Amino acid sequence: MIRNRDNFLFFIPILITLIIILLTSLLMYQLRQFGQTYLTETEKELQVDVKQVLYVVEPLLKLKQYSALTNYCNEFKDEKIRITIIDNNGKVIADSNTEINKTDNHLNRPEIKSALSGKPETVIRYSSTMQSEMIYKSVPILIDGKKYVIRVSVSSHNISKTLDNAEKNIYLTFFIGFGGVLLLTLYILIRVRIPFNKLQQSAIKIASGNLDTDIFVPKNGVLWELSRAINVMSKQLKRQIKNMKKLENFRSEFIANVSHEIKTPLTSILSAVEMLESLSPTNKTEIKCLQIISEQSNRLNTLIQDILSLADLEKRQIFKNRDFAELTISSTVENAISLCQGVINNTNIELEILENTPIKIFGNSYLLEQAINNLIVNAVKYSQTDKITVKSYIENNEIKISVKDYGIGIEKDECSRIFERFYRIDKARSRELGGTGLGLAIVKNIVKLHNGKIEVISKPNQGAEFIISIPII
Ligand SMILES: Nc1ncnc2c1ncn2[C@@H]1O[C@H](COP(=O)(O)OP(=O)(O)OP(=O)(O)O)[C@@H](O)[C@H]1O
Ligand SMILES: [Mg+2]
Q1: For a substitution probing ligand 1, which of 382, 431, 467 has the most ligand atoms within 8 Å of its CB?
Q2: Tell me: the pLDDT tens digits for 34-56?
Q3: What is the C-alpha separation between 363 and 345, in angstroms, rounded?
Q4: How many domains would you assign to the chain?
Q5: Atom 17 of ligand 1: nearest residue by CA position
Q6: Host domain of residue 259
Q7: pLDDT tens-digit series, residues 213-227
């Protein structure tokens, strides 16, 4: 998700960078094209100029009229073009812009070299004589067996400078644009991405139940409003949860108080029944009535005990008062079995421990024994099995405790419901056996207190396996 958001956030700077690179390349290309065209055009013009100069110079050279040649060249003194006539030794015979005795030997000038070897040439180079960049066009002519070079040139200083400036400006625009993109990216990173990630982390913590998380609220910027809204929302949620916890606590306390209040008269009833029974009544009706009072009072007593156990577990969960200590799972399993040994001994059921891991964990051994005991007693009471197997083992960093029977099993729909309070599959039979329907709800709460979970794997007539999983920390 973060990757997608980053792609989205940085898409715009990347796009702008690409556009800048594209535009710069296009402008540079256009500029080069322009330079090239200018050069070609100038070359053509120089070509025409050379032809015209040749037309005048050739006969003068033939007649060796060098002063006329100098006069002709001097006529171009103030023109844009410069005319130079050089002999085969590189000596300047006439030049429109400089006095010939001040010019050095031209034999090494590339355009002269080339022309003397018979090839007309166009060269752009810096002229030390003119102290400017020039475009030279040189052609050879042969007069009475002697080679001369006619060179016509024009300054390219202005256009070169213009092109150079344009190039510099393009580069400058590119770097300014690039700098702008860098600043934009930094802005997105500092003002959007980092605060967004911090805000997301806070939101994840709140979503996982940690409502004391401080929400990161940036001082300003695009996320200010959103952060503030989440902050307000989390505070309201905290208040609501506090109220709900209060109500829940009130409810548990009320139930516990009522149960306690019922317990006192119930104990008196039970001891009165015991006293009457000790008098060994002989009247059949009296015996029957006493039996009913005794049975129902005991049922009520069990119900009250279970309700109190549930209320106690809920309270422990809310106040995190778990009374945890180091315990060895194998011992807890053995203790739970010995708790229900009496019930098993009254049946023909065989109980077998298949595997028992002596791993130490932090937990409430009394409650865990009660949970395992509950599962075994259920198997004895409801499954009609002849065998129960118990095992404890480690799997995926969890300690698993399994209680399995091979009896009537549980329908799929019932499997998810049996952990609900007061839910019994066969109400009449369960009541007959003294069940309140709270046993598995208590087991579920005990496991929850250990941050674990309970599941049942069962199919009709194929037995049922209850598995408790507790994470090993
Ligand atoms: N091993 C099992 N095989 C078949 N049915 C079962 C098994 N264990 C539980 N049940 C069914 O699930 C119902 C709920 O069990 P639970 O332990 O919550 O209540 P209970 O045993 O009726 O009451 P209590 O445990 O409070 O005495 C039982 O009434 C029974 O119908
Ligand atoms: Mg039970």
Answers
A1: 382
A2: 989 998 999 899 999 999 999 99
A3: 29
A4: 3
A5: 439
A6: 225-302
A7: 877 777 777 778 888
